[in-house]
Amino acid sequence: MPSQNPSFLLKLVSLFSVVRGYNILVIILAQYLASIFIIAPDHLGGKEILFNQNLFLIVLASALSIASGYIINNFYDSEKDLINRPNKTYIDNYVSQKTKLATYFVLNFICVIIASYVAFQAVVFFSAYIFAIWLYSHKLKKIPILGNISAATLAVIPFFAVFVYFRNFDLVIFVHAMFLFLVLVIRELVKDLENLRGDFAQDYPTLPVTYGEQTAKLAISVLVFLTFVPVVILLQKFEIGYMDFYFVFTTILLVLFLYFLWISKSKSQYLWLHNLLKFIIVFGVLCILLIDVDVVIKKLI
């Protein structure tokens, strides 16, 4: 058990672990890169976008709402995480449940206040998003398949806020979003396989617990093949510059992923597959820069 009086630094590290600060930093980077190189109008330069006050407030509100979402999710999953993630849970518990809940409400309050400086619609949007995250943590995640789809949808919504702000509804953005959404659903299902022991012990009705590992693997396989649809569309119908190398490389990785998925049986093997999917997502964020190298140079000048 954590010490009775952990230092302030330990509590900060614990809170950073609870809110998964590393994930939030990647999301912030992804929102800004997508804004600069995909979503924002071409006439806006990189500096104009980077120092756009309303965009900054939207990204900040997104980060706070996501952080609060991780907190409430951690609160509801505390028992099964003792089995599934004992080391992380040990670190997380340097902050009490009471402090976590207080932080959850404070972050949500600040998020809504920040949104109010953008527009009333932003307040409605983020209020609905906060409620949706709570609903997912409290109810939806306990429903096989629907829980996985809900988690992936909630992960994509912050990007929706950005392209609504810039009023850019080009088809290419939705195709990119569909690819990301499918990979996120796959990742959620792999997490269920990875956490099978703890979920089973807590009678948590995930897809592998309810219908078995083979059914979960079959569902993941179908989703992997579905990811090839947006990839083909992006390669054939749109100009995505050197990012086509990313999608070709990702397709190869997903084929290898499928092979290892069907021979995997242990938690460590599923964790390796989970990390491979994380790599695909984070690498994809960085490869946004490859869509148009000329635009990258122009926007950064």
CA(first)-CA(last) distance: 52 Å
Task: Specify the helix fraction band.
Answer: over 70%
Number of discrete helical segments: 16
CATH architectural designation of the largest domain: Orthogonal Bundle
What is the CATH top level name of the largest domain? Mainly Alpha
Q: What Rg do the Cα atoms give?
A: 20 Å
Strand percentage lies at under 5%
Note poorly predicted spans. Answer: none
Note the run of SSEs as H and E.
Answer: HHHHHHHHHHHHHHHH
Q: How is the CATH topology of the largest domain named?
A: Tetracycline Repressor, domain 2
Provide the residue-averaged pLDDT: 87
Shape label:
globular
Largest sheet: none
Textual characterization of the structure:
With 301 residues, the chain is mainly α. Helix content is 80%, strand content 0%. It contains 16 helices and no strands. Helix 4 (53-76) packs parallel to helix 8. It starts with 7 loop residues before the first helix and ends with a helix. The model has no long low-confidence stretch (mean pLDDT 87).
